[in-house]
Amino acid sequence: MMTQVQQAPVQGYSHQAFEPVRQAFQQNFIDGLETGASLAIEIDGQRVLDLWGGHTDATNTQAWGKDTLSIVFSNTKPATALCAHRLVQDGMLDLDKPLGHYWPAFAEGPRRQITPRMLLDHSAGLPALREKLPHDAAFDWDYMVSRLEREMPFWEPGTRVGYHGLTFGWLVGELVRRVSGVDLGIYFRRQFAEPLGLDFWIGLPEEHEHRVAVISAPPAAQAPRNAFEAEIATRPDSIAAQYYANTGGWRPAGFNSRAGHAAQLGAANGITNARSLARLYGTLAIGGSREGASVLDPDVLDSATRISSATHKDACLCVPTRFAAGFMREMDNRAVGADSACIGRDAYGHVGAGGSVAFASPSRRMGFAYTMNRMGAGVLLNERADRLITATYQVLARLDQDLKPHSPS
Question: What three-state secondary structure class fits 193?
Answer without folding.
Answer: helix
